[in-house]
């Protein structure tokens, strides 16, 4: 397994249109997240990265939404994802739409997002699935330097492991859109072979208490009094 941190500097696309079949990916991701937007609540939604900013989140219950990134047209805040200009525990939800796929240090980015999220805050992550038809393109030498094959494709299990270390509770996980060149990604294949989906999405919440608390010992005995040595009752025969 390759380390998460890399010295290679990756440049993410400015929009979904810059990716081959990018609009299909965007539509598929929006369909997956549509049932979840009304469930998110709070005051501030942070959409980190250009692809996050391009997603339709008008159905989200959080009205104040901020698009942040290094450069782009739809950004309200120009900021480095590793040094967000927000106070600790000031953001109610954060959207990382393929943001980790173009990060040279995804661990550091997740820790920074965790810093600004409130307790029980929402975290939505999407990425490309390496075990898919799209992932096979990374094995072709001529495609490795093209979009989206140049991006880093982490397995869903690896992302879940990172979230577990940060004490996040995963509420939803899915892989979808099996055929990248079709608008619906192959409806039949998506229904029967979702593990081969080109895209992966995770919805999680930040928890402050351990997800697996140590069970308390029930019915603990009260400490019993032991007899002192030599304090046994003795009887003396009467003469």
TrEMBL record:
Residues 76-125 form the Methyltransferase type domain. InterPro entries: Methyltransf_11 (IPR013216), SAM-dependent_MTases_sf (IPR029063). It holds the Pfam family Methyltransf_11. Gene3D superfamilies: Vaccinia Virus protein VP39 (3.40.50.150). Residues 220-239 are annotated as: Disordered. This is Methyltransferase type 11 domain-containing protein. The lineage of its organism: Bacteria, Pseudomonadati, Pseudomonadota, Gammaproteobacteria, Enterobacterales.
């Amino acid at each position: 397994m390759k380390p998460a941190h890399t010295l290679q500097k990756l440049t993410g696309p400015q929009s979904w249109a810059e990716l081959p079949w990018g609009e299909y990916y965007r539509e598929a991701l929006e369909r997956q997240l549509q049932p979840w937007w009304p469930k998110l609540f709070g005051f501030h939604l942070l959409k980190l990265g250009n692809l996050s900013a391009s997603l339709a989140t008008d159905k989200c219950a959080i009205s104040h939404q901020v698009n942040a990134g290094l450069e782009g047209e739809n950004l309200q805040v120009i900021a480095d994802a590793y040094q967000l200009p927000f106070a600790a525990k000031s953001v109610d939800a954060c959207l990382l739409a393929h943001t980790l796929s173009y990060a040279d240090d995804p661990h550091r980015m997740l820790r920074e997002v965790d810093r600004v999220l409130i307790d029980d805050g929402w975290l939505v992550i999407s990425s490309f699935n390496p075990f898919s038809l799209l992932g096979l393109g990374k094995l072709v030498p001529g495609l490795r330097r093209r979009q989206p094959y140049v991006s880093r494709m982490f397995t869903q299990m690896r992302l879940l492991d990172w979230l577990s270390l940060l004490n996040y509770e995963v509420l939803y996980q899915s892989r979808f859109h099996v055929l990248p060149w079709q608008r619906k990604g192959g409806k039949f294949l998506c229904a029967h072979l979702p593990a081969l989906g080109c895209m992966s999405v995770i919805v999680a919440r930040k928890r402050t208490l351990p997800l697996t608390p140590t069970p308390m010992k029930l019915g603990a005995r009260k400490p019993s009094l032991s007899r002192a040595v030599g304090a046994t009752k003795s009887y003396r025969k009467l003469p």
